[in-house]
Fold these 3 entries.
Entry 1:
Amino acid sequence: MSDDLHIESLLSGGAGAGLERALPSAVDRNWAAQALALIETDQRRSADTHLLHFDVPALSGLSIYLKDESTHPTGSLKHRLARSLFLYGICNGRVRGDTPIVEASSGSTAVSEAYFARLLGLPFYAVMPASTSREKIEAIERQGGHCHLMQHPAQIYAEAAALAERLKGVYLDQFTFAERATDWRGNNNIAESIFQQMSGEPHAVPAVIVMSAGTGGTTATIGRYIRYRRYSTRLCVVDVENSVFFDAYRHGDREVTGERPSRIEGIGRPRVEPSFLSEVIDEMIRIPDAASLAAMRVLSHRLGRKVGGSTGTNFFGLCLVAARMLRAGERGSLVTLICDGGDRYLQSYYNDEWIAAQGLELAPYERCIESFLSGDPCD
């Protein structure tokens, strides 16, 4: 009997029952291929973000660099995370051509995810604290997204999951998937980009990278990459008031929780997020909110453009590390991030009435930072 006749006999008998049906539709696979191509094309249109040399002659022997993530199409570091989360969802088969997208966010991630949802023609819903700046809400809505505001920030997780279920959509859940959605070994992640751009500098391998944590995904990526590439760089993570990351790191307790939201949008959390990996962090420093916002204003003045509050946290932490290195007679380079621009915070961080209402006094910190950058001692 020929092979063809044998196959036909199998198809007509019990052993081949059902095999005569057509192969399953490849509609979802075709959409995924088109969606991935759109995201790849969009990425090619955007050059890598700049690494700025922040010249401070008074800090002799130290070179300061600022990785400017505010130049992404959606204006913040979270553009990288949003792209990774969509790629992760599409390649895992969760995000399809008719999938409503839901996220829990304090703003910047939602702005970036709304951008990618619009690119792919998908509806987007952001579940956010009611305290989120009006500028961020408007940015999400300009991308076609819908905002659900919650009075209690701790409720955003459960509400995002419930909303996704009601819509038969997908909750991207940045706080859980940030550390695994990003390819920490390379693929132009934030860490690889920093080290490649530093390769021709006098101190090519940074002594310290200073970074704040929101989801924990960026610090996980940087910390893993440093170890993977066997660099001597130390990772210093700065935390803010009303955040539990610092306490979790110091006490080794991932169950610690807080009652109040972070005043510095985008960083600090009332719970230890799954993506926060304390094991890849070399040290943590808690920064007062007044110091963060004072550093934000000082840096904005020196750059000639406004930066956001989390950038102020990063920069104040960098100044603390720089002061310690100077006292120890150490030389080298330090890197931190400009996470986003300041135009999203005109009604809050750049509004003196808002600052006064928060009971914050920025002037002493501003004077101290300016003195340090000018080479004068400051206690």
Note: The radius of gyration is 24 Å.
Entry 2:
Amino acid sequence: MSKRKAGSGTTSNTAGSTRELKQRVKTARGRKNSSTQWLQRQLNDPYVAAARRDGYRSRAAYKLLEIDDKHHFLKPGARVVDLGAAPGGWTQIAVKRTGAANGRGGHVVGIDILPMEQIAGSTVIELDFRADEAPDTLKELMGGPADVVLSDMAASATGHRPTDHLRIMALCEMALDFAVEVLKPGGSFLAKVLQGGAERDLMKALNRNFAAVRHVKPKASRSDSAEMYVLATGFKGGSRSVQGNSEA
């Protein structure tokens, strides 16, 4: 349920031109070919290099930056929950955009099953979001309704695409259930799905509870990756219905 950490990289500028310094990983005894390919991709990924340069804990920070630059849902003073927060790239962006680090009233709470160093301006707990006590624990830490619920949660990949799709959709549905419970009217929900997007039942629930729903794939999301995101804005409130037993 966590985002992969950024590794070492090349000199680059994600906002402008990129100077590529292709590096090759030497074959190591016992290392799988897939591991070698992953390491080489990391070494030559401009977003990995940019994360190191800009002090972000993961390249995923640029995904959230790009989506928010276009849709503007992380506002100063907002209360934000980050599900699957480790290693902390999204939490860092939420803290900056809401002003939580400089006393402008923002409040950011993160959760992950993996340990994660605290980030100034946020509260992060090590707990499985699927645990029975997780929702109430988060609500207590939030101290009030949320403006934004973020979920970059992902189950460990099996390599079997239909299975991986079902697993990540289950996490997305859990995140949506939580969002419907805690968001204030007008709030936003951003969650990871896989290519092919949100399934019919999930889309129905999203459209029932939010004024606008769209799929987004930021440039920072690798082109060969099946990941994409569903962004729902303008939470309607009122019915608090995900299953559709009542109309919003």
Note: The beta strands are 79-83, 107-112, 122-126, 146-151, 183-194, 210-216, 227-235.
Entry 3:
Amino acid sequence: MNENKAELKALQRQLETDGNQGHKRPPVHLWKPDFCGDLDMQIKRDGRWIHEGGEIKRPAMVTLFSTILWREGDNYFLVTPVEKVGIQVEDVPFFFTGLEVRQGELGQELVFTSSTDDVVSASAEHPIRVETDPQTGEPSPYLMVRYGMEGRLNRNVFYQLVELAEERAGVFGVESCGEWFAL
């Protein structure tokens, strides 16, 4: 087993023994380990995680690693209490594949589920934004997740949002948790 695979396995073992069960996220914002170098890992635009050129096929492992993501400026890291390793992110680290419309305290609530089991309600703290490619006109919708990191909405999820959209003052958008988001 080469050095990078051994490091990846060691990181996985550490996470599994650090009490990270279920959907509880570890307090990465409190951890300040030294930088240990870059790992040959990439998160693709479509949400796939690649390690040493091969896709990580175990969803539980991808979900586990997603709980220790950290962003500093334009750089992304996997962080544990004792080490911080750099990874590459093609666009944004999360990819939203599901949408549920609920009724909450503030009215309609749009609840998104990511491919790594993050559940995020669009709100003032978790806004939706849409970037439009100036050359193709194609929209790229994003949702704030945590620690300055965003997730991109799957095309089907975006189409569901468009179906929910209404016009206000000449702008099409959606409401969630009392906030208005232009699409």
Note: DSSP finds three helices and 15 strands in the chain.
